[in-house]
């Protein structure tokens, strides 16, 4: 059964799901959702994601939304396939969950605020708040300082193995590196930069970048 992923192939949250599926070797079909046209607010999408966001998945009769819930689901469903993305011991699993929470609340919220100001509002003909963008950039520096310290002690955020904690960062860091020209946040930090080079060179991520035609 081919998994259907609802959302644009270039949107960060759907990419989180797609790279997880690629890591696990799960076949999927991208069902494009036109965000600029507001398709995510139409009944056929709201039936799958009642908050009018992306992504959502359809796997046979099973439907699920929220990208981090989806990647946790597939990492567990296909635990015996591809890399172990959840950790092995109770402590390792707890660390994966901890850094996923950090990614969601301390990191991603700031990146999303930048996306809103530099991408979404201009596309609607509205003015960006550049002071807010600068504020988010300063806060991201402090977040990456925490990452730098953590990565001085381990190759990956949750330990010695690549997990969902690392995977979940891939789409947003790519945006910082490319669209938003904030790559210095990564490259100026030795351990963060080495970590980014490692995770962004994984075959699954490279395959997704080719699929997204970057």
What does this structure look like?
- The chain is of the alpha+beta class.
- The protein contains ten helices and four strands; from the N terminus they run E-H-E-H-E-E-H-H-H-H-H-H-H-H.
- The chain has helices at residues 12-24, 43-46, 67-77, 90-123, 130-151, 164-167, 170-177, 184-187, 190-200, 203-211, and strands at 3-6, 28-31, 56-59, 62-65.
- The chain has a four-stranded mixed β-sheet with strand order 2-1-3-4, with helices on one face.
- A hairpin with a 2-residue loop joins strand 3 and strand 4.
- Helix 1 (12-24) runs parallel beside helix 3 (67-77) and helix 4 runs antiparallel to helix 5 (130-151).
- The longest helix has 34 residues, at 90-123.
- It is globular and about 45 Å long.
Please summarize what this structure is:
The chain has ten helices and four strands; from the N terminus they run βαβαββαααααααα.
Name the poorly predicted regions. Answer: none
> Order of strands across the widest beta sheet?
2-1-3-4
Count of helix runs: 10
Overall radius of gyration: 17 Å
Q: Write down the secondary-structure element order.
A: EHEHEEHHHHHHHH
Please count the beta strands (DSSP E, at least 2 residues each): 4
Estimate the global geometry from the Cα principal axes: globular
The helix fraction, in percent, is 55-70%
Q: Roughly what fraction of the amino acids lie in strands?
A: 5-15%
Mean pLDDT: 95
Distance between termini?
Answer: 28 Å
Largest sheet: 4 strands, mixed
Find the structural class using helix and strand composition. alpha+beta
